[in-house]
Design brief:
CATH class: Alpha Beta
Structural class: alpha/beta
Largest sheet: 6 strands, mixed
Strand content: 15-25%
Radius of gyration: 18 Å
Number of strands: 6
Pfam families: Pro_CA
Protein name: Carbonic anhydrase
CATH architecture: 3-Layer(aba) Sandwich
Distance between the termini: 34 Å
Family: Belongs to the beta-class carbonic anhydrase family.
CATH superfamily: Carbonic anhydrase
Strand order of the largest sheet: 2-1-3-4-5-6
EC number: 4.2.1.1
Number of helices: 7
Catalytic activity: hydrogencarbonate + H(+) = CO2 + H2O
Shape: globular
Length: 193
């Protein structure tokens, strides 16, 4: 913990670098990704403070939209789209994902009921030989596409997509190589950026 504290102290020693941020934020991208500590959106994209609006959830899950039961995730998405006017939304899954791996393997999650119930929001991934692949690449990529589909059902996203004011992107990040792949709709494959 001490190295993190030391860096936080040093970070606050450069207020001139951050003064412009007091005027507000105007990110162009909502970046939805996993809470996994190996996935660092600013590091992956090179974004500076104020350039990405982030939503991090276990397994980069976008829960179903339900206006009668708002969620933090729905509020974040709505705020990014309606208030901040982001032009792009990236859903970024990653290799070696514990959440997707648990689904693919059919892990017993009774000891972590909140995790079990949260993962119930994920699109069901059939157990398969992919469970033997520690990267769970194919399952994660399918999961990213399912979350993009779910995102399209949010009224604010649907409206902005129809008007051409918003674009959706599916990314797959390899934690073991640092490479990023994007889903190409024309070939229905994930290809290196």
């Amino acid at each position: 913990m001490q190295p993190l504290i030391d860096n936080a102290r040093a970070h606050g020693q450069r207020p001139e670098q951050f003064a412009r941020l007091a005027a507000g934020q105007s990110p162009q991208v909502l970046f939805i990704t996993c809470s996994d500590s190996r996935v660092v959106p600013a590091l992956i994209t090179g974004a500076r403070p104020g350039e990405l609006f982030e939503l991090r959830t276990a397994g980069n899950i976008v829960p179903p939209y339900a206006s009668e039961h708002p969620t933090s995730e729905a509020a974040t998405i709505e705020y990014a789209v309606e208030v901040l006017g982001v032009q792009d939304v990236v859903v970024c899954g990653h290799s070696h994902c514990g959440a997707v791996g648990a689904l693919v393997r059919g892990d017993d999650l009774t000891g972590v009921p909140a995790v079990r119930d949260w993962l119930a929001h994920a699109a069901p991934e059939p157990r398969s030989s992919a469970a033997d692949d520690p990267t769970v690449a194919e399952a994660v990529q399918n999961h990213v596409l399912a979350q993009l589909l779910r995102l399209r059902s949010y009224p604010c996203v649907e409206q902005r997509l129809k008007s051409g004011q918003l674009r959706l992107h599916g990314w797959y990040y390899e934690v073991h190589t640092g490479s990023v792949h994007e889903h190409r709709t024309d070939t229905d494959t994930f290809e290196a950026l």
